From TrEMBL:
<keyword id="KW-0732">Signal</keyword>
<protein>
    <recommendedName>
        <fullName>Wall-associated receptor kinase galacturonan-binding domain-containing protein</fullName>
    </recommendedName>
</protein>
<feature type="domain" description="Wall-associated receptor kinase galacturonan-binding">
    <location>
        <begin position="32"/>
        <end position="91"/>
    </location>
</feature>
<feature type="signal peptide">
    <location>
        <begin position="1"/>
        <end position="23"/>
    </location>
</feature>
<dbReference type="Pfam" id="PF13947">
    <property type="entry name" value="GUB_WAK_bind"/>
</dbReference>
<dbReference type="GO" id="GO:0030247">
    <property type="term" value="F:polysaccharide binding"/>
</dbReference>
<dbReference type="GO" id="GO:0016020">
    <property type="term" value="C:membrane"/>
</dbReference>
<dbReference type="InterPro" id="IPR025287">
    <property type="entry name" value="WAK_GUB"/>
</dbReference>
Length: 310
């Protein structure tokens, strides 16, 4: 009898400690943090459903160790995520660079879904150089009387780009603003000027994209950084996520209505992990009470057996 009571005594203690540990355990802010190749994928991004910010859902995919971003205009390789400056650097394999000019409308351009526009947009220092556009392109409608959007962006433009060796193969047709023999082969624009780089709608054969990282200045197109530099932002800031992570929660969203959630291990909160979910709190409270009741009962039985000499 004494051996049975001893075993029951230790089992009850173990169960009590387990419940206490569970009742005070939270989630982990790193639960949703992922890695793809050498890139860290963290809030507001994620490659797991329900993690990160809902505005960036179904956006990033890790394919054979390569992080890809997918939007309506196509897929792009993610070269870098700068969390300090809230920016992404993307690569379009069919985009022209200084060494190679690509025609044939093979480039993706850059067009985001309307609902994503508040979250993703190329940076103001990103210049798009549209190549081989027709005279009927929306860029040139109304010329020569209408002011054209073609201009330098952050000191980068077509006049310098024409000096790239890639043009030695295809040749150039550099003409002035008043066209006598058709539009130029290159028209540099900012993303804000036209809101979308859709080669088909713009009637262009290709494009290049370059950006500068202030305050560094480089000499000529050979030193430009080629790629698409995209600014990202979270509407209303990230105060919810900061409060969540401060209580060791992981920032996520409800996959049904896309509302923000703080994931706290075995339960979710609409605020943070210090604000205990009512049903989870009730369940844990009663589990703890049951364990304590059993523990006290065990002590009583133990004392009674000792008194009776069992």
């Amino acid at each position: 009898m004494a051996h049975i009571l001893t075993a029951f005594f230790f089992i009850t203690i173990f169960q009590t400690l387990t419940v206490l540990s569970t009742a005070h355990s939270y989630g982990d802010a790193h639960t949703c943090r992922s890695y793809c190749g050498n890139l860290t994928v963290d809030y507001p991004f994620a490659i797991q459903s329900g993690c990160g910010h809902a505005g960036y859902r179904d956006l990033l995919f890790c394919i054979n160790g390569v992080l890809m971003l997918h939007i309506s205009s196509g897929s792009y390789r993610v070269l870098d995520i700068d969390y300090a400056y809230e920016s992404l650097t993307l690569d379009d394999p069919h985009m022209s660079t200084c060494s190679a000019i690509v025609f044939g409308k093979r480039g993706n351009g850059f067009v985001v879904e309307h609902w994503r526009e508040q979250y993703l947009s190329p940076t103001v220092d990103n210049v798009f150089m549209l190549l081989g556009c027709t005279a009927e392109s929306p860029l040139f409608q109304g010329f020569p009387g209408k002011h054209l959007p073609c201009r330098n962006v952050s000191g980068m433009g077509c006049e310098e780009y024409y000096g790239c060796p890639g043009w030695n193969i295809v040749g150039t047709k550099k003409v002035g603003l008043v066209y006598g023999s058709g539009p130029p082969d290159c028209c540099a624009v900012s993303f804000e000027a036209i809101k979308a780089i859709n080669l088909t709608k713009l009637g262009c054969q290709g494009y290049s994209s370059a950006y500068s990282l202030a305050p560094l200045r480089v000499d000529g197109p050979h030193g430009w950084s080629y790629g698409i530099r995209v600014k990202y932002s979270v509407e209303g800031g990230d105060s919810f996520c900061k409060a969540c992570e401060a209580t060791r929660g992981a920032c996520g969203y409800d996959i049904n209505d896309f509302s923000s959630l703080c994931m706290c291990g075995s339960w979710n909160s609409t605020s943070n992990c210090d604000s205990v979910h009512s049903s989870a709190s009730h369940r844990r409270t009663w589990s703890l009470m049951d364990a304590l009741t059993g523990f006290m009962g065990c002590i009583a039985v133990w004392k009674l057996s000792a008194t009776l000499g069992l």
